[in-house]
Amino acid sequence: MSTPLKITRLDANQVDFKQHLDALLAWEGVSDKSVNERVEEIIAAVRERGDAALVEYTARFDGLQVNSMADLILDRARLELALERITPEQRTALEVAAERVRIYHEHQTQPSWRYTEADGTVLGQQITPLDRAGLYVPGGKASYPSSVIMNAVPAKVAGVPEVVMVVPTPRGEINELVLAAACLAGVDRVFTIGGAQAVAALAYGTESVPRVDKIVGPGNIYVATAKRAVFGQVGIDMIAGPSEILVICDGQTDPDWIAMDLFSQAEHDEDAQSILLSPDAAFLDAVEASLNKLLDSLERADMVRISLENRGALIKVDSLEHACEISNRIAPEHLELSVADPDALLPAIRHAGAIFMGRFTPEALGDYCAGPNHVLPTSGTARFSSPLGVYDFQKRSSVIFCSPEGASELAKTASVLARGESLTAHARSAEYRIKP
Ligand SMILES: NC(=O)c1ccc[n+]([C@@H]2O[C@H](COP(=O)([O-])OP(=O)(O)OC[C@H]3O[C@@H](n4cnc5c(N)ncnc54)[C@H](O)[C@@H]3O)[C@@H](O)[C@H]2O)c1
Ligand SMILES: N[C@H](CO)Cc1c[nH]c[nH+]1
Ligand SMILES: [Zn+2]
Question: Other C-beta atoms within 10 Å of 97: how many?
Fold first, then answer.
């Protein structure tokens, strides 16, 4: 047996609990000065030298030497080939997942609307999709076909006519499942580039890579830093940090199940965070025993150990209500309510990216195929942001039509307010419409 796992144990009533919790939650992924400098340098090079810079950085950071940018472009025909190359079982799984994600996201579509006032004035809101979206699909340490589906399907449901995808292929290793997912999800073109250089290419365009209106999708610190840097030039969805899971358990779920749920996010990243809250101290002991029993059976045991020892915790709380209060303070990306009656707790949950209800709803099902999006706000940002959705690929335009009568009335109000702001042209523009 390997060394016992040194996971933090806390009691939410201990005097220094707040300090311990704050220390556990502290994570700032895009503040590193050297990373910022490198990313700025990469963005400047891509803006200046376009494709040539992409080819150079791909050789340097992905270990992939190519003669020209043409070798880093995959068209629809190549994506269709990938769909033929995967096994029937894999194809079915991708199709089931894509279809469920599509159906869920179709519920998010919002119609344009308008209403007419008594004098014939019409006011409304017109919804239009982005012209072109850029998807970043991570490919450094692992490949994520599921992320292709989660990013591309809502874009297509929103009506985006052109979806381009970037994905690094370290040492030229192409993941056929990623390409097959892109094919099924309706991606138009793929560029096998990654990191800050791919984000810069999507933001500014190069000879080969078209400039997009919005960049979505998770990535490592270089990707996140680059997305923050190009925001304003293009839209971005969010700055995604490492994965997180918070489990609230009443002590009645099999401890092995909870241990595996905690592992499931810890295996993403050394910086990932897995926390368990329970009012049952004996259950926390049982989960700790399960963690120790099962850890070595994981392919990524080393990464999981680092994540759990640095950022994981098993926390004793007074009650399930107390657990909900702490959960709101954490505002986790994923929250599992592994309790007999999750509906009873739901109204108390105010901040969480996705809420998994009951013992039979492990977070992993949401990662792949339940239907809702797995791109979620992390690092406490669920306080003010939402899962990736159809709305991220659409814009709203206000629509205003004034009848002559309506204009005459509104102009009187506008004139007073405009003169109060000393904006004479505004006032006179309105006043021209006042009926004599
Ligand atoms: N929130 C989500 O929905 C979600 C889903 C999937 C993955 N993720 C996260 O996305 C991240 C993926 O990271 P990844 O590294 O596997 O893939 P990645 O594609 O984000 O990053 C790989 C790229 O980073 C760049 N890079 C690496 N080292 C560099 C260096 N020293 N200097 C400059 N550039 C460098 C390279 O260009 C490389 O192509 C993980 O943290 C994972 O947890 C999140
Ligand atoms: N849990 C990740 C988001 O935090 C998404 C993912 C992809 N594959 C497996 N999981
Ligand atoms: Zn996951």
Answer: 23
